[in-house]
Amino acid sequence: MIKINNLTKTYFDENNNNYHALNNISLEIEDGDIFGIIGMSGAGKTTLIRCLSHLEQPDSGAIFIGETNIADVNNKKLKSVFKKMGVVFQGYNLLEQENIYDNIAFPLKINNIKEDAIKKRVHELLNLVNLADKEKSYPSKLSGGQKQRVAIARALASSPEILLCDEPTSALDPLTTKSILDLLLKINEKYKTTIVIITHEIRLIKMICDKVAVISAGKIVENGAVEDVFLNPRNDITKMLIKEGL
To answer: Considering the entire predicted model, what is its pTM?
Structure first.
């Protein structure tokens, strides 16, 4: 389970004016969920996923992955916890100078996994994402959808229990988007992976997510089962997102 308690993150501009990117957020994500977090630009989505992936340190609050608070930078268990988490970054973040095999193998190599085990795992993932014929290709030769598949495979390399996806389909056409969502569903079903998706796309939430949280101005304004939230929206932001997504 992921449990977020009273999470706050404040930024300062060049004039030393502050704003709350996250304002006392609390949220629970059950094991095995496909959980969507949706909001407009500037709502706090990216800051939230950066805190979840430990790329940002919150000002206050707690983020529990199981029993471990990853917001506690002095926690000795953090390294083992982050081995259980994979991140699919917006914009792919592939190593352009490395081929597809080496991109996927990278997390395993830095963890000193034996070469035979790396080869077996990479080939398993290449087959999972339907890129077995692309292992010697380089990112520049791939389509956007193929790059996203490589990014997903790399995030799965260490067999994480949690997969964090930041706008995983924002640059893709509708047909490619569906193929990526089908892949995420397959991963969830095959590995029982908890998937957290940050997005501004209402259709993505409707197509794949079990539960959703709506974020606005750094606060969670609605939270629950997708059907309940979208059929009975209470907040004006939720109503606007639904209208824009029709």
So the answer is: 0.91
